[in-house]
Amino acid sequence: MRKSLTGLGILICLSLGTAIAAPLPDNIQDFIKSSFPDTNFRFDGVVILPDNTVYLPLIPSKFNDGTEVKIKSTIPAGQTMAQKPDAIILSNDYVLLKMLTNSKGKNTVVNLTIPPLELRTGLLPQDMLVPKNFIVPANLKNIIGNLNITTTHDTGLVIPVSQSKESAAVNSISGIVPLQNKMFYITSNITKNIQVVNPVKKVADYALYQESTPITIKGYQDFLLVTSYDKKSMDVISLADEKVIKEISFKTQPDEIVIDEKNKTAYVSSGEDASIYVVDLNTMTIKKQLRLNGMCEKVILSEDGTKLFYNDKQTREIWAVELDNNYLLKEIGRFPNVSKIAYVNDKIYVTSRTKNRLAIIDYDTMGLMSENEISEKPVDMLAYKDTLFVLGAADKTIDVIDTTIDTRTQTIELTSNQFPTKMTRIGNSNLALVTDAKAGIYSILDLDKKSVIKVNQLETPVNSIVIMNQIKKIGK
Q1: What is the Cα 25 distance to its own chain's centre?
Q2: Span 410-444, pLDDT tens digits
Q3: DSSP state, 435?
Q4: What single string gives the DSSP state of each residue in 22-60?
Q5: Residue 289 falls within a domain, yes or no?
Q6: Domain limits for position 32
Q7: Nearest residue to 338 via CA among 291, 298, 279
Q8: Which DSSP state fits 277?
């Protein structure tokens, strides 16, 4: 069955989201990047230089949107962008205010007896995440607009975790380069809070408080995207501030998140609404709603970003959405107790949790090519080059499938005595973590050598794990 979703992919208006984000115009970004190429331009307008210097933009009520941006004046006077002055007034009347720290350790901006007109009449982006303990000089209060400024001590989401006798215990990651300078963000079945763990430790440094139990967490740049049970919104957590920077609202509870980093897009499913929402990660706003057949789950994105696949948990039918073909909806077939879907070399791979079978479907013909026996209780798959790794929870093994001939070439034995449930690739490296939902343990899998190279301990079991670069905190 084929069905076009063109008419059902609708632009989402403000009723489904918070205020429109305010990223800086491209010509201003280009001007800043000429001095600091690796600058992070956050979707709420905040500018973070590579050394963590923060600039807050003031948007003029009326400005000259010329093609070339130059400096009109600076405070102190006569400085260049590279010198990082306290304030930069641009030729189009935009102002960049450097975030400073006063004598009491509070975040603030430059305090002038008579501020220039551009400072007095500009406005901070009205959906901007306000820095912790931010104080605005009295004669610049107009720049706040309707922003909610918290002046009391604000710890954001950070909460301490109990430190056991294992707190001083360490894991060795010597020689494992992809884990250097990384942090783990972990959800667990023993707490609703997100555990923040340095890979060299067994115990979390602290946790990020969550009102509800997370369903899915995903990392993008310096942010965590979090969906939770009984919550009709997706939280965007800034890891530099460790605060919720934005809540993206939906009609119903959002569930799974799939990220296309190349196209800066997130696909967020809602089984209750039979929809997948397209979220623009540049602005953190919903751009389109794709209405589907059935209650979607097990959502995956093809490596080239052109297709979504999902399982209808009511009918057990698998569907594909061709994103580059007017959202054409194609029925793949019905399969029992689907645990995971993968797509490699124009073939769809489907595991059945109860049947211990791997079905292989030709995408062009939708014909079943073969159905192969695999390890008991297959719960996850990871595609890498021409290899498919299939994790068997009951047998505590990983089947290695050569997708060029669709044959199991070897089986990797795991040392866990519990219930391994997920494989998470470390960035674009040749390593992956095999985590356990019942035991505080993870294995490091070399995808090229097809072998486990190390087993490390954690204090808590892992439902899901996000691996992010260590991020310097704003204002610290």
Answers
A1: 24
A2: 999 998 677 899 999 999 999 999 999 998 999 99
A3: E
A4: -PPPHHHHHHHHTT-TT-EE-TTS-EE-TT--EEEEEB-
A5: no
A6: 17-143
A7: 298
A8: E
